[in-house]
Amino acid sequence: MIIPCKIKNFYKRWNITYDKDKRFVDFKNRALSTIDEILGDFFLSDINLERIFLKLIAKHFPQSKIGGFQNMSKILEVTNVKEFRNSPVYKIISGENDFLEFIKCLQVLFWLDLDSEVKEELFLGFKEDIELSLLDIQIKRIKGDNIIFYPNGAKLLDERVVNDVLDWLISYPKVYKSFKSALEKYQDKVYQRNLIDDLRLSLELLLKKILNSYVNLENQEKPLGEHLKKKNVPKQLRNMYWKLIDYYAKYQNNYAKHEDKVDSSEIEFVIYLTGTFMRFLMTLEDTKNEDYIKGFPSQLVETFDPLNSKRVIEIPTFNELKDNWQNLLFHGDNKDVLATLLELGFRRKIDLIYIDPPFKSGADYVRKVELRGLKNLGRIEEDEASILQQTMYFDIWNNDSYLQFMYERLMLLKELLSETGSIYVHLDWHVGHYIKLLMDEVFGQDNFRNEIVWCYRRWSAQSKIFQNSHDYLLWYSKGDNYTWNQLLEEYADNAAHFTEEDDKGKYRWQYLRGKKYKLYLKEGTRMKDWWDDLPYINSMAHERFGFSTQKPENILERIIKASSDCDDIILDCFIGSGTTAAVAQKLGRRWIGCDINKGAIQITSKRLQKIILEQIKNDRNSIQHSLLGEKKIIPKYKTFAIYKVNDYDLKLLKTEAIELAIQHIGIQRVRTDRFFDGYLGKNLVKIIDFNHPLTLLDLQLIQDELKKRPNEDRDI
Q1: Which CATH number goes with the domain that contains 634?
Q2: Within this chain, do residues 344 and 275 fall inside the same structural domain, yes or no?
Q3: CA 326, 331, 332 angle in degrees (round to 5)?
Q4: Are 212 and 338 found together in one domain?
Q5: CB-CB neighbours of 374 under 10 Å
Q6: Which of 216, 251, 284 corresponds to the end of one domain?
Q7: 3-state secondary structure at position 3
Q8: Which of 156-170, 181-195, 201-215, 506-520 holds the top average pLDDT?
Q9: Which of 284, 314, 337 is the C-terminal boundary of a domain?
């Protein structure tokens, strides 16, 4: 598992340290105790101060610098700040950190050992400065867009309509007051209803992570408490979760009464704490250093090189490929492959990521794939699939590791994505709501761009529910400066009448007052996030490759055209039937794909070989060759290589297997030593064949060798 960089700051901020010499259990208990102390301060603080504070931290505050906090200068002069001069809070007050960091560090305020009067003065100072800045920004937004902005940028009502009504009612005070009151309740009601649903979802997600099983929030109190104890959930952790549950119950009851106003800022802060808490729990499951990512050696299997460039790349580093690219197809667990890509120099080099992860449909994915050359054996059955395939496609959901599975891969994908890059995740109703929360956590809510709905038609058996006929895609960018090429929808109603075309576009002839004019077809309208013009691939379609989850090429064509440019690198770590690679190849992009399923690798390879050979044929036909054949076209990106990662062929030659082990572990090779294979640190290393159990005879051989070296003082 790769631990994200955010957690490093998380440790420092909460003074959580990790001592490698101590047991992991001790570290985990100390970490949870520290969290409990901070959250305890949050929930047990004076209610008035708490409300003053919580009103400031709604996540819809703009993430921009609010320089200086002028009102804080006097407070800093009269307050003893030596005790917390190095804390994040002091840096926020003094203007050293930006506003985004302020939001991340808010809970630390309750941790400071300050007098209540000093705390109150600090909070009031923050309140005044932030409200003025927020008001100024809101006014600018209203002037620019003529829209009333509410939390999360919800465009509920047109400002001009509201103002017209208020102006008209100004002569009727009672009606005016009633209308304005109703307007405020409507605005609060719409936002609060969605916010309470989000709170419930975040709590259920956290509970799912704590218990490794699903328990509905309605089944709380005694049954849930007993369940937590049976699962050996620590007391501190149980207490924290109950406090979060109490908050949810309070807001749910207040909202149900329609009288008590719900404080949206408080709800948002609890959601924020829940997400932070869950992220921290995930990192506690692995004790590796957060800055350490260990990839695996990539074993070259074969290279498809129809142009006979005679170029073989054993280790596909980015520096090796950037000036003479060949596309890459990896066979192995995508978590291992992504870590390997980072180690090979692909950090922040991927321009576009599309993934179609298994969402409770993985068993069908593996069972229905036929291996090339094994037709007589029929299709793969569940029992015949490898352990890795079963882990990835059968047990992810059943043993409730799906969220952890996706979180780890999303963190790695974020590291690979360039600063101008985008990621699209294809989902359906099974897990989409959970993945949305994870995507917000990993890529940030501010980098969410669209939820694209793909509507399709297909026959299904009769049932007592509405027919499921759509998937959706979550699109996030790495930052604000992302690649975007506007796509247009043609005006389909009359486009067929425009049969002529010139350098200006399609046109038809129109006669007006006896004269003949060219009437050009308008380009079209901006493409919307509702895609109902892309059909589902039926089982008999030419495009079908035996994957029940296969997506049409048109979807990938839109995504790749909109969010990448020619020569950009496209990555799909759930390559399946190879649709992403196929479309990227056709559109002149570079591509990287991987899959744990051997059948998927074979199908993708065969599919890409056919496309590339067709491209070469078309390119050659487009050139008038001389009789001597002096002219020759060399198309770009017409080769690809297949590599294995951490799932190596056990039939390898022994020497090659030893080299892979040496490369992975980091052993220093000693070519002059005929017995030992190298050294690791100050220790000698002897590699034993994986299929050969270590016996007393092996130990005797090592002992005999050491007798020949009386001066050898290194361990083995």
Answers
A1: 3.40.50.150
A2: no
A3: 130
A4: no
A5: 13
A6: 284
A7: coil
A8: 506-520
A9: 284
pLDDT in tens, 87-112: 444 444 444 443 333 333 333 343 34
- Domain-embedded: residue 512: no
Angstrom distance (rounded) from CA 40 to CA 172: 50
Q: Is residue 501 part of a domain?
A: no
Are 154 and 84 part of one and the same domain?
A: yes
Q: Exposed (0-12), middle (13-18) or buried (19+): which is 651, by Cβ within 10 Å?
A: exposed
Dihedral (Cα; 152, 158, 160, 161), 10-degree rounding = -140
Are residues 275 and 304 both part of a single domain? no
**How close are the terminal C-alpha atoms of the chain, in Å?**
29
Could you tell me the residue range of the domain that residue 35 belongs to? 5-284
One domain for residues 179 and 254: yes
> Is the torsion defined by CA of 376, 379, 382, 388 positive or negative?
positive
504 in a domain, yes or no?
no
248 and 307 both lie in a single domain: no
If one counts the domains in the chain, the total is 3
Q: What is the largest CA-CA distance in the chain?
A: 111
Mean pLDDT of the chain: 64
Mapping DSSP onto H, E and C, the string for 511-552 reads EECCEEEEEECCCCEECCCEECCCCCCCCCCCCCCCCCCCCC
Which tokens is 289 given? 């250093």
Of 16-30, 202-216, 426-440, 662-676, the range with the lowest mean pLDDT is 16-30
Q: Global pTM?
A: 0.51
pLDDT grade for 121, boundaries at 50, 70 and 90 = very low
The per-residue DSSP string of 583-605 comes to HHHHTT-EEEEEES-HHHHHHHH
Residue 675 pLDDT exceeds 70: yes
Secondary structure of residue 304 in the 3-state scheme: strand
Can you tell me which residue has the tokens 């509410």? 150
Per-residue model confidence as pLDDT tens digits over 324-359: 899 999 998 888 899 899 889 999 999 999 999 886
Provide, for the chain, the percentages of residues in helix, strand and coil under a 3-state DSSP scheme, each rounded to the nearest 5. 50, 15, 40
